[in-house]
Specification:
This protein has about 260 residues and is α+β, with helices and mostly antiparallel strands. About 20% of the residues lie in helices and about 30% in strands. It is globular, with a radius of gyration of 17 Å.
């Protein structure tokens, strides 16, 4: 079994009180620790917040050995349980015309955006796979389309062994828009477990109100057909007005 969690953790913004980072980090990490995933993909957050998150996770280590942190940048990150996942290689790819220039941006992106990846092995079975986590532009669909194409092109080069891919992230658009069209064209082996199980579409971004009736499912987990989905859920736990983030976490489990 491979258990994966994906969550936009929302940057540390004091104006969010009572849902600032200090007010909700225990709730978020409690949910993650309870689910006990093998891999966690997070979006948003700067280095101090992400190191704080690592300190609160009971079993997970942040994979950042090949990263030179830029103070003002927010990063998608990968946390793994080293007792179940062996990381063979890792890195960052900036979703721009210069993907290995840290902090670079193109395609009219509002901010520099990137993906982070690992080549990993399930210790119990010895099976290898590629895991990619990303956060796309929040403004323009044309920007997101270019960014996902950079991701696919560069990950394909990195994944020289053509290992099965797991892709998570905050894609900032619904599964019926252009990003998924690009993925389905170039990575036909990936499928959406949510749709595979016939789940009704739900909103994953809720602005700390728990509702956002105008929202959509912008947080996805996509997997290679080598993985058989067992469970997937958008986790809506909260404590009164306190939410783990302004996005609901997505938890899933697979056999490989």
């Amino acid at each position: 079994m491979l258990k994966v969690a994906s969550t936009n953790i929302r940057f540390d913004n004091p104006a969010d009180k009572p849902n600032d980072w200090a007010g909700r980090k225990e709730l978020l990490t409690g949910l993650l620790n309870k689910f006990s995933p093998d891999i966690i993909g997070t979006q948003e957050g700067r280095e101090p917040q992400l190191k704080d998150l690592e300190s609160l996770l009971s079993a997970h280590k942040l994979i950042d050995l090949n990263r030179e942190w830029i103070d003002e940048r927010m990063y998608p990150c990968i946390f793994v349980n080293p007792k179940t996942i062996d990381v063979i290689d890792s890195g960052d790819i900036w979703l721009s015309e210069t993907p290995f220039a840290a902090g670079s941006k193109s395609f009219e992106s509002a901010f520099p955006r990137l993906c982070t990846w690992i080549q990993a092995r399930v210790i119990e079975t010895g099976k290898d796979f590629f895991y990619v986590n990303t956060h796309l532009d929040h403004v323009l669909g044309t920007t997101r389309k270019e960014q996902i194409q950079v991701l696919i092109n560069e990950i394909t080069k990195k994944n020289s062994l053509n290992l099965p891919v797991v892709l998570t992230g905050d894609f900032n658009e619904s599964p019926s828009e252009s990003v998924r069209e690009v993925i389905e064209k170039d990575w036909q082996e990936l499928y959406d477990p949510w749709q595979h199980l016939g789940r009704a579409e739900e909103t994953s971004f809720h602005k700390f109100d728990g509702k956002n009736i105008d929202g959509s499912r912008i947080d996805w987990i996509l997997v290679d057909k080598s993985f058989s989905v067992k469970t997937i859920q958008i986790v809506k736990d909260h404590e009164g007005e306190i939410y783990p983030s302004d996005h609901y976490p997505v938890f899933a489990s697979f056999t490989y």
